[in-house]
Amino acid sequence: MNRENSLSRIKEEKGSWDLVIIGGGASGLGVALDALSRGLKVLLLEKSDFAKGTSSRSTKLVHGGVRYLAQGEVGLVLEALKERGRLLKNAPHLTINQPFVIPLYTYFDRLKYGLGLKIYDWMAGSLRLGKSMFVSKEETIKRLPQIKQRGLKGGILYHDGQFDDARLALAIAKTCIEMGGCILNYARVNKLTKGEDGKINGLVFRDLIGKTNYRISAKSVVNATGVFADKILQMDNPEAPKMIQPSQGIHLVMDSSFLGGEDALMIPETSDGRVLFAVPWEGKLVVGTTDTLVKKPKMEPRPLASEINFILETAKNYLVRPPKRSDVLSVFAGLRPLAAPKEGSTKTKEISRSHKVIVSKSNLITITGGKWTTFRKMGEDTVDAHFKNHGLQKLASSSAEKHLHGYSEEEIEGHLQLYGADAALVLDLQKQRPELKERLHEAYPYTAAEVVWAVREEMALKIEDFLSRRCRILLLDAKASMQMAPKVAEIMAKELKKDEAWITEELEEFNKLAKKYLIK
Ligand SMILES: Cc1cc2nc3c(=O)[nH]c(=O)nc-3n(C[C@H](O)[C@H](O)[C@H](O)COP(=O)(O)OP(=O)(O)OC[C@H]3O[C@@H](n4cnc5c(N)ncnc54)[C@H](O)[C@@H]3O)c2cc1C
């Protein structure tokens, strides 16, 4: 995964690409993976870093979506359960089978959730991750040591998957490169080009690092820009109606001792009728999320005070030790790319969460909606549209069986598990240069070797790329990420051959960003 190699390839390619994909989040990467599995020639362009948008800000669940079942979205849940099983098989190094417990305070809830989760199990068929069952009050307390015990009748135990979203994005990007794809970050698409027939035949993008524009020709252009999809649709047709309604969801990260144990807590009905999760993640506890309509899409959405209060208030009702604002180590927000509601409706809950593939008159293929769990299927449906559009015979897809980069069934101790087969190579770096064993922060296990690895092998170009998406410290503990930043900047500057001015600028930019992840 080397930026210079990708740029050389773009310059050298004389012929046109089959598919040029705009957006390097879950959707764009899913399209690239599936298209490559069918032998197409693929270029993916991301204006920032891979997964910088919504795809690094999820709740980190690989799930069928139990709550959609209650809304009668059977097809959506069936599809997601199938994809959940596939992802856990294809990326065992990046996913885990996570037990969840719903605490029960009435016998009616036992019946309602017990039955619902039996159906969920049954729908997953052979891809089921474990049997859901009623557990006694004692067992519930053992699994959720900090749950409020007054009135507790027991719990329902069930299973879903959990993953590291940004590192999964990197693993997919690497897999795509290994399959012959070309992938570039910090490459912003500024214009779509059309032939005399009015059909899109390529685009113009700007390499934001080299400050150069490139004109690219393509059989199909795919708009996989999440909440930014309307901007690309309007590049195609300035009159295009608004398709996306962004809906914000935030998460609070706190010490894992607020829940205790290794199981996750699922609160099936909050005061606003949603579900709330408290999930152990990389040694901390992630609590969320919310559903707040916002007017405009932003690269760095800001959590609202009301959202923070809502999560703290809800957690207070269930946890023995109620978390306070001062207990929050980091707060992060993401935007759901929901399909804009029909006129008259304002509630996002009413909008279907399934994905949509839309082809414009000039052949721009747009993929919107969906979720991380179904990224591969979303890709498959999008590539099908490419064949249909051009009247071509569909080539068979094999993305469902494709092992993702780093695939390893071996259990590696500690956080290097997420590197899978690459963990040995990171450790080799430390053997070759023992100074790279140095920790970046006394309270965390990340080492200097991982920074070197991120620059050489994972296309990290800014300190934020490392601190937010290669290692996840910005989301886990924003203050610690600021303390690590100077060391990370120094190592990256050496690797990237940058000067002192670059270090100063990077640190200033990062500290400004990290402060937004702190609650005052
Ligand atoms: C709060 C929250 C929690 C969630 N939790 C879960 C969960 O637990 N499990 C799950 O399965 N799903 C979850 N989801 C859903 C999932 O995260 C999203 O569906 C998914 O990440 C969307 O990916 P995307 O690629 O469509 O968008 P994005 O990740 O936003 O990617 C779009 C990319 O396009 C790029 N781009 C935009 N314009 C241009 C341009 N002109 N040129 C080049 N690139 C451009 C952007 O920089 C961006 O990186 C959650 C979503 C939210 C908001």
Overall description:
The chain is built from 16 helices and 20 strands. The protein is an alpha+beta fold and 520 residues long. The strands form 3 sheets. Strands 3, 4, 5, 6, 11, 12, 13, 14, 15 and 16 form a 10-stranded mixed β-sheet that branches. Strands 1, 2, 7, 8, 9, 10, 17 and 18 form an 8-stranded mixed β-sheet that branches. Strands 19-20 form a two-stranded antiparallel ribbon. β12 and β13 (276-281) form a beta hairpin. The relative contact order is 0.15. The structure holds flavin-adenine dinucleotide (FAD). The site of flavin-adenine dinucleotide has 38 residues, from α2, β8 and β16.
Largest sheet: 10 strands, mixed
> Which molecules are bound besides the chains?
flavin-adenine dinucleotide
Could you say which overall geometry the principal axes of the C-alpha atoms support? globular
Radius of gyration: 23 Å
Number of strands: 20
Count of helix runs: 16
Going by helix content, strand content and strand pairing, the class is: alpha+beta
